[in-house]
Amino acid sequence: MDWAIGIDLGGSHVTAATVDELGNVGDRFHRDLTSLEPKHVVSAMEDVFKKARKTLGKRAVRTVGVGSPGNIDPHDGIVAFSPNFGWRDVPLADMLAKKLKLPVHLLNDARCATLGEYLHGSGQGTTEFALITIGTGIGGGLVSRGRLLLGSQMGAGEVGHHTIRPDSGFVCGCGKVGCFESQASSTGLIRHALALAPSFPRSRLLTSHRDEDWGTKLIVKALGEGDPHAAAAWERYLDDLSIGLSNIIAFTNPQIIALGGGGGRVDPDVLARPLTALVDARTTMTPKGKTTIVSATLGNDAGAIGAATLARLGGISALTEPLALARVPVKKRRRRGRT
Ligand SMILES: [Zn+2]
Questions:
Q1: Ligand 1 center from residue 222 Cα (angstroms)
Q2: pTM across the whole model
Q3: What DSSP string describes 125-156?
C-alpha cells in the first residue's frame, strides 16, 4: 500500500495523518498551537510530521501536502493573507520544506477538505460537487467537470463571504454585513438564538446552560425537546442556509452538496430534509430537486486526507486535469488513530 502524509493546519492546533491511496487514515498526530508566529507553527508541523513518518517505518515519503487557512498561492507556496493567523505573505511551504528536506505542496484548507471528500468521501461518483463546511465560519470548495475549481487568484470556493442579508444581517469577520458565513455558520446559529432571546424570556436555552455550552449540539437538542426558542432560531438558520445553498446551485449546479464541519453532523430529519425543501423552493431556473444535500462523510479527517491526496497527486499542477483518473473504489474505511 502506498502511504502519504497530509498536514491540516487549524486555528488552534495542527494535525498530521498517514493516509493510504484509498483515503484510509492510519495514524493521526495532533499538537496544540501556543503561538501563531510562523516559526512556531512550522516547528509544530515538523513535530507532527516526524511522528507520522516514524509510523511508516522504511516506507518512503517523497512529498508532503499541507492544508492551511487563508488565501494561498499554491504555485509559490505562500500564504498571501490569513486574517485568523494575522499572516501576510508567509512563505509557509519553503519554511517547512527546509525543515523536512522534502517538497511541500500547500493549498487552502477548505479546498484540501473538498479534494478529500470528492475523491474519498461524499463526492465519489460525481463530476459536479460542492463541500460546505459549517463551523465557526463557513468554508467550501467546488468541483466542476471533475476539476477542483481554484479561480484566477485561488479565490474560487470562498462561498462563506457571498452576501445574503446586506440590510439586516450580522456583521461578518471579513467586515461586510450579512455574509453567508455570518448568517449560516454555527456562530450564525448562536447569533440567531441571541437575537431572538428577548422574545423568549423564559427560554431553557437562556436559563439552564452556561454560555460556553451554546452551540449547534445544544440548540438541536433543545429543538428535539420542543423548545420554542430553539425552534425559532433553527428556522431562521435554515432559511439563511437555504439562500446560500440555492445560490451555489445556481452558480455551479452540483449533483451533491455535502455539509461538513460540526454543523453538518446533524440528523438528516432535522437538517438535510427540511433544508432540501427550502432550497428547492428557492431554486428557479436551475432544474429543481436535482441536487442532493447530504452530510459529509470524512469528518475531521477530510482536510488531512485531502492534503495527503494533494501530495500523492504531485501538487497543484495535477488539479488542472479531471480528478476522475485518480478516483478510487469506495471501500470501508478503517477508523483507528492515535493522538
Ligand atoms: Zn464575510
A1: 28
A2: 0.91
A3: T-SSEEEEEESSSEEEEEEETTEE---TTS-T
CB contact at 8 A, 28 and 337: yes
Average pLDDT over residues 269-274: 97
d(CA 283, CA 247): 8
**What is the architecture of the domain spanning 3-109+300-326?**
2-Layer Sandwich (3.30)
25-32 and 64-68 as β-strands: parallel, antiparallel, unpaired?
Answer: unpaired
Residue 52 alpha carbon to ligand 1 centre in Å: 35
For residues 185 and 137, is the Cβ–Cβ distance under 8 A?
yes
Asked if 147 and 321 touch (Cβ cutoff 8 Å), the reply is: yes
CA-angle at 149, arms to 63 and 25, nearest 5°: 40
Please, what is the end-to-end C-alpha distance for the chain in angstroms?
23
Residue owning grid cell 455535502: 258
Contacts of 201 (CB under 8 A, 6+ apart): none
Collect residues with CB below 5 Å from ion ligand 1: 161, 172, 174, 176, 179
Cα(313)–Cα(148) distance, integer angstroms: 13
Cell of 209: 446552560
CATH of 122-295 given 3.30.420.40, 3.10.560.10, 3.40.50.10330, 3.10.129.10: 3.30.420.40
Q: Tell how far the Cα of 176 is from the centroid of ligand 1, in angstroms.
A: 5
Give the pairing of strands 64-68 and 3-9.
Answer: parallel
- Give the cell for residue 174: 471579513
| Dist CA 282 CA 12 (whole Å) | 37
CA–CA gap between residue 293 and residue 287 (Å, rounded): 15
pLDDT in tens, 51-88: 999 999 877 888 899 999 999 987 889 999 988 889 99
Equal CATH topology for 3-109+300-326 and 122-295 = yes
CA of 179 to the centre of ligand 1 (A): 5
Residue showing cell 485568523 = 84
Buried b (16+ CB within 10 A) or exposed e, 257-277: bbbbbbbbbbeeeebbebbbe
